[in-house]
Amino acid sequence: MNAIRRTASEKLFDYINVFLVLVILLVILYPLLFVVFASVSDPRLMFEHPLLLWPKGFNVESYAKVFENKDIWMSYKNTILYTFVGTMINIIMTTIGAYPLSRRHFYGKGIFTFLFTFTMFFSGGLIPSYLVNKQLGIVNTMWVLVLPGAVSVFNLIIMRTYFQTRIPVELEESAYVDGANDFHLLYKVVLPLSTPIIAVMLLFYGVGHWNSYFEAMIYLSDRSLFTLQLILREILVQNQMDSMLSVSVDEQYAERMIVKEGLKYAVVVVSSLPLLIIYPMLSKFFEKGILVGAIKG
Amino acid sequence: MPSTNVAATAVPANTPKRQTRFMDVKKKLKKSAVLYLIIAPVVVYFAIWAYWPMYGVQIAFKNFMPGVGIWGSPWAGFHHFERLFNSYYFGPIVRNTIAISLYSILIGIPTPIILALMFNELRSKRFKTIAQTISYAPHFISVVVAVGMLLFFLSPTNGVINALIELFGGTPKSFLSQPGSFWSIFVWSGTWQGIGWASLIYTAAMSGISPDQYEAAYIDGASKFRRIWHITLPGIAPTIVILSILSVGGIMSVGHEKILLLQNGLNLETSEVISTYVYKSGIQNAQYSFSAAIGLFNNVINFAILLLVNTVARRINETSLW
Fold first, then answer.
1. B87-317 maps to which CATH number?
2. Could A107 and B138 be called an inter-chain contact, meaning their C-beta atoms sit closer than 8 Å?
3. Which spans are transmembrane here (chain A) (predicted)?
4. Where residue A148 sits, what CATH number does that domain have?
């Protein structure tokens, strides 16, 4: 592209483009920055003038309240556990599902591929799945959050394509000649060469577990098993909706709400920060992962 | 005699052939034996959590009673479907579902393409990478937090948007209690959250276009817009088609997760969609058969539309899902 010399109008185009990109980034980023600023601002000042370009006053009281809150702690621990166990299951299942489908001599590849991909386009639906989980007796346990979504067909296809295209055929053949079977081949040759795609899968699945609330909401009734997103839903959405819809506003009510408000911003930061810190580090990997998926959708 | 001759030669010729084919299959199966062992847990997974629910779909045609199970429950024919089609909320939930889908598609398909084109024209590689990484940060925020943040901004008492409105002399509004603004709130907040992530796949496709093409076009005197129009867009056309097929194929399904969070009694007339209705009647009110029928109706229509769109796409420009 460097061979192309820019005319004056093209230079203008580039400047306008950079400007527009900056505006878009600002719009995307502002809500996130707003929450961070708001979480360290004085909630009383915030309540009167919610427009923020920089923190108003300074307080860490909201964060102290978050750390004092037993529900948040408990659910945070649960979420870490479910995310860890769930993601491990996801990675193992996706790998052992994708690997055979990537082998050329695998007899019956077409049937398996069809049976797996068909479920992407047609499913029993919410109620039959709910009844299956009920019948299995896993409702109200951790397993209902980690087993039913153990394999995502979309990720399975991405992984299969990676195995097909990125593992040199010569390596496999020499392994076969040396007398290795497919099992050895998978964990001695294929897996060591697949760190980029596994990193991608860790992030895709991990984010899914960390952020999901619906399954936890319909399957968990025991409060000690609740996930972070369920507690967040109570704090951020249910209370807010209630207060928006209630008509009577007394003096104390306003004071209570102001204190609660500070907690909300802090809890958003505490719950979302881990992912927002991790993802840029892995971004190189998953831009590649998407590329692999894009080639053979 | 020629007739017996034919029979005599046909029989022995047939048996070894069949036998070799059988041996062939046996050999292939044996060669794949370890692979079957490896894939077995995944097959079990799909059997339990994908195909067992499909078997369970038959409760849509039965009066499901938990005590006697799926098999023992009595048949009800199309009773649940008739009840659905005749109910007064059937029209509104189908209308809301399609309207929200169409609105999402109309905004959700072009905006990431435009953003990807803008990123693609950035001359500084470094700035491009940073800009792109920032653009998909909201993708990593959960639905619950995203809706929570939306409420910070839209709150009638201390929301940012209303503070802005007041600053310019307007009167604050309670956005989420107005049925008229629900669709826009849903779609545009979704754009905020998804535009960067969706643009990734297009920039990936654009990076596969050869630079020679641009240089040749430049030498021929093509302007920047012409280069975008005649090289970049055709280069990503297959990706656009595939993603469009998928979104049009899902026109009858609007995810319940975000809508359930944004819903309240005042915006219900525009916010109730098929999936939220299935959740409410099935999980909350335990009308299993009735809501399984709604779900099935929804899935069948989705699947039919997907097949249709895919066929049309294949006829027109040879890019399709299968």
1. 1.10.3720.10
2. no
3. 12-40, 80-99, 111-132, 138-158, 185-207, 263-282
4. 1.10.3720.10
Entry field: residues in chain A: 297
CA B30/CA B43 separation, integer angstroms: 18
Residue B163 with chain A: CB contacts under 8 Å: 49-51
- The CA distance from A168 to A104, in Å, is 13
pLDDT beyond 80 at A163: yes
Residue B22 is predicted with a pLDDT of 80
State how many domains chain A has: 1
Rounded Cα distance, B223 and B231, in Å: 11
A273 domain residue, yes or no:
yes
Is A213's CB within 8 Å of B142's CB? Answer: yes
What domain range includes position A210? 61-294
Q: Model ipTM?
A: 0.88
Query: Do A205 and A155 touch, CB atoms closer than 8 A?
Result: yes
Q: What is the pTM of this model?
A: 0.88
3-state secondary structure of B75: strand
Mean pLDDT confidence for A10-16: 89
Contact B297, B229 (CB under 8 A): no
Q: Report how far residue A88's alpha carbon sits from residue A68's, in angstroms, rounded to the nearest whole number.
A: 31
Q: What is the DSSP letter of A55?
A: -
Q: Which of A255, A266, A216, A220 has its CA nearest to residue A72?
A: A266
Percentage of the residues of chain A whose pLDDT score is greater than 70: 88
Calculate the alpha carbon distances from B249 to B105, B210, B314 in Å: 11, 32, 14
Residue with tokens 């577990």: A209
Report the gap between the CA of B257 and the closest CA in chain A (Å): 6
Angle between helices B233-249 and B90-108 (to 10 degrees): 170
Of B42, B153, B205, the CB nearest to A294: B205
Both tokens assigned to B81: 């479907």
Please indicate, yes or no, if residue A2 is contained in any of the structural domains: no
In total, the C-beta contacts within 8 angstroms joining chain A to chain B are 281
Task: Tell me, yes or no, whether A11 lies in a domain.
Answer: no
Q: What pLDDT was estimated at residue B196?
A: 93
Is A138:A144 a contact under the CB 8 Å cutoff?
A: yes
Report whether B51 contacts B287 (CB < 8 A). Answer: no
Tell me the C-alpha distance between A181 and A166, whole Å: 20
DSSP tag of B168: T
Distance in angstroms (rounded) separating the CA atoms of residues A294 and A44: 49
Closest CA to B319 of B236, B227, B231: B236
